[in-house]
Amino acid sequence: MAVTLSEQAARHVANFMVRRGKGIGLRLGVRTSGCSGMAYQIEFADNARPDDIEFESHGVKVLIDPKSLPYLDGTELDYAREGLNEGFRFNNPNVKDACGCGESFNV
Amino acid sequence: MALLQIAEPGESTAPHQHRLVIGIDLGTTNSLVATVRSGLAAILGDELGRPLLPSVVRYLPDGHSEVGYEAQAKQALDPRNTIVSVKRFMGRGLQDLAHREGMPYLFDDAPGMLRLHTAAGLKSPVEVSAEILRTLRLRAEASLGGALLGAVITVPAYFDDAQRQATKDAARLAGLPLLRLLNEPTAAAIAYGLDNAAEGVYAVYDLGGGTFDISILRLSRGIFEVLATGGDSALGGDDFDHRIFCWILEAAGLKPLSVEDARMLLTRAREAKEYLTFHGVAQINARLNSGEQVDLTLTTEIFAEITQTLVAKTMQPVKKALRDAGLSVAEVKGVVMVGGATRMPQVQRAVGDFFRQDPLNNLDPDKVVAIGAAKQANLLAGNGLAGDDWLLLDVIPLSLGLETMGGLVEKIIPRNSTIPTARAQEFTTFRDGQTALALHVVQGERELVSDCRSLARFELRGIPPMVAGAARIRVTFQVDADGMLAVTAREKASGVAASIVVKPSYGLSDDEIAGMLKDSLVHVRDDALQRALKETQVDAERLVEAVSSALARDGDLLSADERARIDHDIGKLQAAVRGDKRRQIMLAIDELEADTQDFAARRMDKSIRQAFTGRNISDLGSEAGEARTGETV
Q1: B541 vs B400, B405, B437, CA distance in Å?
Q2: pTM (2 decimals)?
Q3: Which domains does chain B carry?
Q4: B127 classed as catalytic
Q5: Is B619 a catalytic residue?
Q6: Which CATH architecture has domain A4-106?
Q7: Is the ipTM of this complex over 0.95?
Q8: Which of B127, B195, B206, B451 is catalytic?
Q9: Are B5 and A86 in contact (CB under 8 A)?
C-alpha cells in the first residue's frame, strides 16, 4: 500500500509549507460527498493522529487515515497547470468513474 | 479534471463548494488581481504571465472594447476613445475636475457623475471601470477554474461615499460579487500581516507612477482606523523620470527634441532609474533621430541630488498627516512602502531617516495592495460559516444608538457609516449619588426606543457617588469588519468600565431593513413631535427632582406660604408631565422656575456664608443646556 507525490507536487508542497511557517506534512483523504460518491481532501497537517498511516515522498510527509487508504492506494499526487489554472491532481488507479469536474469519484 | 488546492486542517470544502475569492487593486494606472492558493497569496497573471493590467479601456465603433496593454498601445493613435486614469473620474461631476482642458476626452455633464463621449457611445466612469473589473474577473475565473464567490476591491482611504458607491456599482456591472471595499493603505498593512500585530500606529507611504498618498492608521483590536491621510495627486515616479530626462538634455547639451526623440530619451531615463535601484552607476546611451549621440553615466549620487526636491516634496504631506493625527514620529510603530517608485534607494533612505526606522519593504511594492486585498477576501470567505446567516457588511444598514432618558434614542453611529468604524459619546448621571448606569443598545432610524429594535442591555456599575451631571461616562461604539458591535462604557474619573458585544445586523433581513427605513420616513414628523414632548417631560422630571432635593436640604429657608406655593407648583407640574400636552408642561415648568428663584438665591447666600463649597446650587433652575443624561438604574 502506498501513496506518492510527483516531484513537481512535492516541490510545491514544500514551498507552501515553508511560506505557511508551520505544519508537519500533508494530509490526504476521501470523504463521502459530491456528485459521484466520494471527494478528495487535501489539507496541511499540523499534527499526526494515532492511527494515521504515514508515507514519505520526495521529502514530504503524507498522512492518511486508515479508512481513506483503500480508496487512495496507488495514487500519485501531481501538480499540474491547465491554462491559467494550476493545482494538485490525484492520479488514482482505483477510480472507476468520476464526475465531469473530477472532484468526486467512485471506486 | 479539477485542480485542487491545499486547505487548512479541517477546512476542506465539498466538491463544487470551493469558496473562490479574489482581491483587486483597481489602480489609477495599473490594476491587479490576486488570490490565496494553498495558503499562499499570489498575483494572477494573464496568458503571457504579466501581472499588471494597465487601467486603460479603448472603445471601438462597433461597440466592443479593448482593455489593458492592447488599449494602452493605441493610446497615442486614438486618444479620444482610449480612456486612461478613469479612477480620477469615479463619482465626480464635471465641476470637480481640475485640468480637464488638458484631457483629450469629450465630456458630458450628467447629474452626479460626468460621462464620456466615445466611439461606442456615451460611457460613464462606472462602465469604464467595470470593463477593467470584468477583464480581471475573467482572468481570475480562468485561473481558479470556477465562478467566484466574491472579491475585495481596494479604494483610496480618502474616497468619499460617491466614489465608493461608484466603485461598488462598477463591480456589480462587471458581474463581480463584492465582499467589501477595502482602503488601500489598510490592504498594504494586511499584506504585511500587521492586522495580526499588537495595537499600534502605522504609516503607509504610497508613491505610485503619478500620485503620492500617505496614510496614518491605528490598529486596534484587529481593526484599522484611518487617522489621517494626505498626499499630492500630481507627484509620482514619472516625475523622477522627467528629472533624469532634463539632466540628460543639460549634460549632453541637446537642442529641443522631436517628439520621437523625447519619448525615447524618457524611456532611457526610466530604465536608468530602475537600474539604479540595484546598481551604483547607470549608462545612458542613445542615438537620436537628429543624428546626435548621447553617452552619459548617471550615478546614484547624481540621481539622488537631482531628485532631492521631489523626495523632500513627499515629506511635507507626511508631516502634515502626522500633525493632523496628533502624533509624533516616535509613536509610529512601522512604515509600509507601497508603489513601484518606493524602490528608489533615496526614497527608502528619506523615509527611514524621517521615521527613524527601516521601512517595511520586503514585499513587492507594486503588488502589496492586491495581496492584502486577497488575504482579506480569503479571511472573509474562510471565516464565513456555511449557511445563509453569513452576512457581509460594508456599511451599517441602520443607525446604532443608546436609549436616553424618556425612551429617546441617541444615535451614536449613523446609518450608512462604512465599517469598521468606532464612535464615542459622553454621557452623565441623572441623580445625585447615582452609582450605576443602565445602557440599552438599539438599532433603527426612529426617535423613540419603542419603535427601534433592541439589541442589548448592560449596566455600568461602581460609578463613584457624585453630584448629578458630574460623572463623565464615555460610551464607545465599535463595529468591526464582520459587523460585530462592541459597546464599552467607561467612567473617566474612576476608570470603571463595562462592555458588551452584539451582532447588529444578524436577524434583520433586507426586507426588514427596507421596511424600517420606510417607516422612519413616514414617521419623521410624528417622531419629531414625540421627541419634543419626551424631552420636555425629561426636563420637567429633572426640575422636580432638583427642587425636591433642595427642599429636603434647605426647606427651612422658606416661609410656610412660599413652601405651599412651591409644593403646589410641583404637584401641577407632575400632573402635566403625566399628560401629553407639551405646552402645559412648559407652562408649569416656567411657573415652578419663577417661584423658586428667590429660594435659589437664598440657598446661594447660605452656601457662600457657610463656605459650603461642595454643594451645588445649580440643582435649581434651568439646566437644559447640560450634557445628555443616560437612563438611571
Answers
A1: 26, 10, 18
A2: 0.61
A3: 21-184+364-378 (3.30.420.40), 193-362 (3.30.420.40), 400-524 (2.60.34.10), 530-619 (1.20.1270.10)
A4: no
A5: no
A6: Sandwich (2.60)
A7: no
A8: B206
A9: no
